[in-house]
Amino acid sequence: MFFRNLTLFRFSAPVATDLDRLEEALPEHRLRPVGPMEMSTRGFISPLGRNEEALVHNVGRNTMVTVGSEDKLLPSAVVNDEIANRVQKIVDEEGRKVSGRERKRMKDDVMNELLPRAFVRTSRMSGYVDKKHGWLVLDTSSRKSAENTLSQVREALGSFPAVPLAPEESPRILMTHWVATGELPAGLVLGDECELRDPATASGAIARCRRQDLDTDEIREHLRTGKQVFQLGLVFDDRISFVLGEDLILRKIKFTDVVLDGQADSPESAAAEADANFALMALEYERLLGKLEEWFKLPRPE
Fold first, then answer.
1. Which of 5, 132, 173, 182 could cysteine-pair with 141, CB 3.0–4.6 Å?
2. Global pTM value
3. In the chain, which residue ranges form alpha helices assigned H by DSSP?
4. Which residues form a coiled coil (predicted)?
5. What angle, 0 to 180 degrees and rounded to 10, lies between the N-to-C axes of helices 270-296 and 171-181?
């Protein structure tokens, strides 16, 4: 259940009160099976698992939701091969060229024939809202996937003005300063991963380091030549390790043994275990996100 990547949005205190409608709003937007002639469907599913009905799961002041999807797998190469076969058959049997308009009709016919037989891939993305502090936390490192999930919530509620983070401190400049000087905020230490780029040009030099000590002259030499830190491995309070991007997306999150040792040994049931893990995760992320807000000066919308 622990989220391994975090893409974050913020919302105001007045918006938080409107989130109490989630439980009554989501059932009308439940995921339905993809139809024979559809490429995909999106909708809400239970955060608690396949056989559960509840679309909202509350633990404390945090509310978890999950968006599911069903997508038809119909590779363009398969469609193009079938069209090519049909075109070649016309050339061989009728001795004429196939026009662009005829090719388009042919493609529509191929799609109509193949779509009902295509395999269906299911996927899910979970997220939760921290109504007290105004965070929407989504378990993905893909900005596009996060925006799609946010759109599902907006559609269900009619409106949900959550916005991307707007740091007053440049993450790239601040992370570069941390690595160059070794002066990190209290409780934060360097990990063993970073990505350095020359920001002057889109095709500038890139240096990627993994499983490497970042407090070295080699790394600082890259910085002296003009590179900046675009991604940086960090460890917070000996409890959470992660890679922070200049887009303020958190990737590769892992809880250390200090956190994991605090899990209940013998939960009463699977539901009790899920609740305990969600509560533990949300509490740890609340502390970390509070520090992100402080370090990068992340205003909460008014």
1. 5
2. 0.88
3. 13-18, 22-25, 76-94, 100-114, 143-157, 171-181, 217-224, 257-260, 270-296
4. none
5. 80
Token couple for 77: 């190469």
Distance CA 142, CA 129 (A): 18
pLDDT digits (tens, 9 = 90+) for 131-177: 999 999 999 999 999 999 999 999 999 999 999 999 999 999 999 99
**pLDDT higher than 90, residue 49:** no
SS3 label, residue 300 = coil
Q: Do the beta carbons of residue 230 and residue 197 sit within 8 Å?
A: yes
Which token pair is 247?
């887009």
**How far is residue 149's CA from residue 127's CA, in Å, rounded to a whole number?**
9
pLDDT at 202: 64
pLDDT tens string 230-240: 999 999 999 99
- Which two tokens mark 251? 């990737």
Which residue has 């605090």 as its token pair?
262
Q: SS3 of 210, please?
A: strand
What phi and psi values does residue 68 have, to the nearest 5 degrees? -105, 160
Residue among 68, 65, 4, 79 nearest 42 (CA): 68
CA distance 202 to 235: 29
Chain segment 208-237, per-residue pLDDT in tens: 999 988 888 889 888 888 899 999 999 999
**Average pLDDT for 49-64:** 89
Output the DSSP codes for 22-73: HHHHGGGGB--PPPTT-SEEEEEE-TT-TT---S-EEETTEEEEEEEEEEEE
Query: Which secondary-structure segment (H or E) carries 193?
Result: strand 188-197
CA dist 244 to 5, 15, 148, 220, Å?
10, 28, 22, 19
DSSP state at residue 227? -
What is the DSSP secondary structure assignment for residue 131, as one 8-state letter?
T
